[in-house]
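testing teh design pipeline on a random one, pls ignore if ur not involved
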């Protein structure tokens, strides 16, 4: 059908070059897009979010992701 599949979500950060996609091509995709070859910076941003999600015992919710990203 047209439009996104039911149960999918995208969260874009207004403060960080981060995005989270839920149930799109992957179950959970964390990505950071920064200008230039600043790979370490991009890695650190995604790693921070990944570590925050690993500390959670329950399912990830959009309010949790917003808090983890300091949005």
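output:
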């Amino acid at each position: 059908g047209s439009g996104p599949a039911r149960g999918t979500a995208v969260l874009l950060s207004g403060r960080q070059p981060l995005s989270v996609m839920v149930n799109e091509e992957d179950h959970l995709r964390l990505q950071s897009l920064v200008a230039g070859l600043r790979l370490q910076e991009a890695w650190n941003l995604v790693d921070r979010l990944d570590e925050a999600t690993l500390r959670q015992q329950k399912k990830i919710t959009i309010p949790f992701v917003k808090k983890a990203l300091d949005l």
